[in-house]
């Protein structure tokens, strides 16, 4: 009896399970809820009616077999699960590194974010137009402009004139092309000479016209005819492709044999070679030429008249094919537009410079066109010259409307104002030293009011040499010393400004030339100004 009782209480558990048994039991566990009793059956499937083994499943056991995980993941141990998840994360990290980190190494190929910066370059005068050109690396841009060597050879004797490109992110030099003669003009958005999908620079000096690779500053070609380089020419304008080489041509004016400036020349855009030339004898001087709707328009001046003429581009093409073809110029009625009025968002800015500086004065006015030409501003400054203004317009966002007080439109302009200063002796000669103030003004307006803010003011020392040929820095090379553009394509505009000045010692009257380039984020700085 005791043996039977003992046998009823104790039932030997199997020491091993087959794969099928293990899978069967796991499937049974799927349907068990926390706290539910589990009945043990014999191997023949019949329940034990005398005694049965029962127990409650712990909460964590049920969680381990939750249906939401795949079957293979449910059967993993915690360590294997951790290793599996870590391997997936490592794969994602490798993809991110190869797509974004490695291409953005020290080579500057990452998208550049432009902040405010200021940098100085000694021994040169920055001048002329600011050109935004492509940099060596993807999504980088440079600022290309002219550089003139210091006229004070006693102190800055090693300086050289040429063309210079500065990195837009730092102001450091990207490339510099020295020139024997000081260049007079450079434009970098007219033509892609080498067809690398990047516009190249056209550089003009007394030595002639050159095409530069904008990425490196290397000379691609020099404007020439069959015998020599073409010199003493004006800056060219762009014409259509006239010789069927799939690249635009260039038209300019140079001197004829009788020293009159009345000879039209057409240069091949691909090679820089002269395609054709002809002299217009009814003109002593040709200027203000432009291309418009298959016509070349130009001003013809001589002792008896000052008129505008036109030439059809088809005649120029015939002249290239047949050098004996007679090109006819027809007199027209044409009134050129003078840049003294600038219209923006229902307002007109008037800028007028009168007289020869430093004995000059400037008149500036602001008119609200939408309110019966109401004059909002009108003032005159003696011994002053106003540079060409730059219009701006900001997005009409809630943030801009609040921080800028609704002044979303306006003009940025530079003003030179002369003050009295004594002469200073350099190199044994008397050289006139002029003291100036260079101001950057912000003229902003809304529908209800306007403001004039003095953004910056710096002192400039200008030296005028006894020959009377040059003053440095030169006034007329400052008309384009401001540029407003989005350098890093982030939707916000940067204001680029350069200036040049001599720095003179108090005792030995030694002066050396320094140029400064500055970039500021205009919207951010304006918000600070309005907050004050």
Notes on the structure:
A hairpin with a 2-residue loop joins strand 7 and strand 8. The strands form seven sheets. Strands 22, 23, 24, 25, 26, 27 and 28 form a seven-stranded antiparallel beta sheet that branches. It contains eight helices and 31 strands. The chain is globular. The protein is about 15% helix and about 40% strand. It has helices spanning about 1-10, 20-30, 60-65, 70-75, 80-100, 315-320, 400-405, 520-530, and strands at about 115-120, 125-135, 140-150, 160-165, 175-180, 185-190, 200-205, 210, 220, 235-240, 250-255, 265, 275-280, 285-290, 295-300, 305-310, 330, 340-345, 345-355, 360-370, 375-380, 385, 390-395, 410-420, 425, 430-445, 450-465, 470, 480-485, 495-505, 510-520. Among the domains are: about 155-330, Methylamine Dehydrogenase, Chain H (7 Propeller); about 340-530, no CATH class. It is mainly beta.
* Assembly annotation: single chain
What does the largest sheet look like? 7 strands, antiparallel
Q: How far do the termini sit from each other? A: 105 Å
Number of helices: 8
The count of β-strands is: 31
* Average pLDDT, all residues: 83
Tell me, what's the shape?
Answer: globular
Class computed from helices, strands and strand pairing: mainly beta
Question: Which range does the strand content fall in?
Answer: 35-45%
Please give the share of residues in helix. 10-25%
List the uncertain runs: 1-11, 13-35, 49-55, 60-65
Taking all Cα atoms into account, the compactness measure Rg is: 39 Å
